[in-house]
From TrEMBL:
Keywords: Signal. Residues 44-311 form the Fe/B12 periplasmic-binding domain. PANTHER family: IRON(III) DICITRATE-BINDING PROTEIN (PTHR30535:SF7), VITAMIN B12-BINDING PROTEIN (PTHR30535). Residues 1-22 form the signal peptide. Belongs to the bacterial solute-binding protein 8 family. This is ABC transporter substrate-binding protein. Pfam families: Peripla_BP_2.
Amino acid sequence: MRRTFALLLAALFLTGCTPAESQQNGLRVENCGSVETFARPPQRVVSLNQHATEVLLALGLGDRLVGTAFPDDHVPPPEVAAEYAEVPLLSDRYPSYERILEAEPDLVVGGYASAFDEAEGRGREAFAKSGINTLLLSESCASAPSGMDTLLADITMFGEALGLQDNARKLNADIEGRVRAVEQRLQGVQPVDVFVYDSGEQAAFTLGGNGVGNDALTRAGGRNVFSDVPKVFEDVSWEQVAARAPEAIVLVDYLGAPVQHKQSYLEGHPLASGAPAVRNHRFSTIPLVELTEGIRFPAAVERLARDLHGA
């Protein structure tokens, strides 16, 4: 337990978040450059990305979640699917600032930094001026690589802010236990070089080394061929893809981007088609939400371990 707590503190420091601090005038939370003070646990919460919504539901927020937006997947995880179906969908993409205000939230949560786009009127300062707190999953603001420790730290932070500390501890224990079980099964295996293909034709949009998805791939016995790119996702050239000769390719699946088209494109590409992964037809698929910070992290590790090692 002491080791786990130390890891959480380290992750919070690296990601720009510090532990929530109880003060006389409420709970103070430092999150991605913003200081939020909660006089009491929020009662009306809007979540602007699916993976953030799933975290809140897994924490047991229940009917305090009054709106969501920007779904990436048709099928939420079974442990939150019923509750997810009951949350009002404010928009298939990001709703306007005015649409969010109609839900009368006292907290707005973002999964990606784009949720709080100032140019579109949804900046965190705008919500603060309306007396509305905001929180952002830390992967979006990390200055160093994020991973499972970042996720566990954020769940702890949300548990404190929402008054769901016991649920947060249980959720963290489940996540950590499932991941450790996979790591034990994979002890001694040789890592597989993997190229993660999200999208793109002029350039390849791929998984970099700073995101939670890179950590999931590593724990599953993969070696991200673009782990040296200091971004969560980033464009790389097709020449780079060919030169790094991936042994396996993971296709990222989300609404509006059929993975069958992605595989066909790679198979016909003059450079990518020469990679060992394409020549050996070694493709697998993973939902985008499993590569982002959220409760699907253990499922991502389990899925990738099966695909890469049969474990």
